[in-house]
Amino acid sequence: MIILAIETSCDDTSVAIIKTNEKNRTIEVLANLISSQINIHKKWGGVVPTLASRAHSKNLPVVFKNALREAKIKMRDIDVIALTIGPGLAPSLVVGVQYARALAYAYEKPIIPVNHAEGHIYSNFLENLIAGNESAIKFPIMNLIVSGGHTSLYLMEDHGKFTLIGKTRDDAAGEAFDKAAKMLSLGYPGGPVISKLAEQFKPDAAKQPIKLPRPMMNSKDSDFSFSGLKTALFYFLKNFLSENKMTKKIKEEIAHEFQQSVVDVLIHKTISAAKKHNAKTIAVSGGVSANSELRKQIETKAKENNFSILLPPKNMSTDNALMIAVAGYHNLDKKTSWENIDANPNLKLTK
Ligand code: KG4
Ligand code: ZN
Q: In the beta sheet, which residues pair with residue 162?
């Protein structure tokens, strides 16, 4: 079976094509193209929905055409279209939805509506599927989805069986990185720049270290909160700059402490939730799962606590259509006609 996937939920226009082999349950990636809009949004310090929508409209036909060319197939060879219908930015989602509906109508193809968060979760299944050993992944899985729009823990007892265990009460972790970077005049997106700066930090024993809070780290529930961390950084900067000049060294230290605060909270909450719900595997996905420190530290902690750990390939952490194709492959029973497809910006993974 050949699956064409379309993803336009935020600021990445992406089309992927996979070929599945039902007999040995493997997949082959024929194309995975992503057109990023970072250059459009960076001067605003975040994604501007109307600009994102216009860029998707302009780029999607080109990305689609190039994906078919790379896969060396024609639209008539496609069996089904997997499509992100939500959650996400409404003006962005509707571009992908309208394009997929038109394709499905013109070529008489069914559509599988895919939840973007479920797509992130399935980014962790890709490598095993390619290698033909998906069955090596052990359920239940405690999924931490951390991106610009989500910070949630989902227990996955089996394919299609998700329970929401906890989520952020305010900002998402990626959003916190983006806002911190904006306060430090580091540009957008914040995660990669903060991470790079933090790597350069060298502790100075003679100096009092900068300390930021670990919000809700010891609360009994599995929820998160990152807006307090952002506020703490704001007041730290206000105080600091009233008496001192900002230097590259101080920026490195702030980046390091800010990143470690986010990493500490994410790891502590995920390990606690995994223990509480008897998970066998911990899986991290979403844009922030590209963070090297988070990857390194959660891998160590998961192993110490006898959990298997799944991390997506770094280029699969941020938004891409390949993860939507893999999620579509696990939701073939949701195949439907183009008339039943609509964008749902607030789509939930659980009822
Ligand atoms: O999954 P994604 O592409 O889009 C959403 O669904 O939100 O995630 C984008 C987010 C941004 O907030 C970005 O700052 C963050 O992921 N991000 C990172 C890193 N790379 C991207 N955060 C921390 N460290 C990184 N290396
Ligand atoms: Zn995402």
A: 156
Q: What separation in Å is there between the alpha carbon of 79 and the centre of ligand 1?
A: 32
pLDDT at position 46, please?
A: 82
Ligand nearest to the CA of 7: 2
How far does the centroid of ligand 2 lie from the alpha carbon of residue 289, in Å? 11
Distance CA 334, CA 111 (A): 8
CA–CA separation, 101 and 339 (whole Å): 8
Ligand 1 pocket at CB < 6 A? 10, 147-149, 174-175, 177-178, 189-192, 195, 286-288, 290-291, 318-319
Q: With 0.90 as the threshold, say if the pTM is over it.
A: yes
Q: CB–CB of 264/226 below 8 Å?
A: no
Which residue, by CA, sits nearest to atom 3 of ligand 1?
318
Instruction: Please give the distance, rounded to the nearest whole angstrom, from the Cα atom of residue 68 to the centre of ligand 1.
Output: 28
Pairing of strands 161-167, 151-158: antiparallel
**Burial level of 89, CB count in 10 A (0-12/13-18/19+)?**
buried
Task: Identify the pLDDT of residue 70.
Answer: 98
Alpha-carbon gap, residue 113 to 88, rounded angstroms: 14
3-state secondary structure of 98: helix
Question: Rounded to whole angstroms, how far apart are CA atoms 78 and 60?
Answer: 17
Single out the residue of 208, 212, 161, 223 nearest to residue 350, CA to CA.
161
pLDDT computed for residue 276 by the predictor: 98
Contact 327, 115 (CB under 8 A): yes
CB 173 within 8 A of CB 161: no
User: Using CA of residue 221, residue 225, residue 228, residue 229, what is the dihedral sign?
Assistant: positive
Give the pLDDT means over successive 10-residue stretches in the chain (351 positions). Answer: 97 97 95 93 87 96 98 98 97 98 98 98 98 97 96 98 98 96 93 97 93 96 97 97 95 98 98 98 98 98 98 94 98 98 96 74
What radius of gyration, in Å, describes the C-alpha atoms of the chain? Answer: 21
The alpha carbon of 188 and the centre of ligand 2 are apart by a number of angstroms equal to 16
CA–centroid distance, residue 309 to ligand 1 (Å) = 20
Mutate to test the pocket of ligand 1, among 120, 123, 147 (most ligand atoms within 8 A of CB): 147
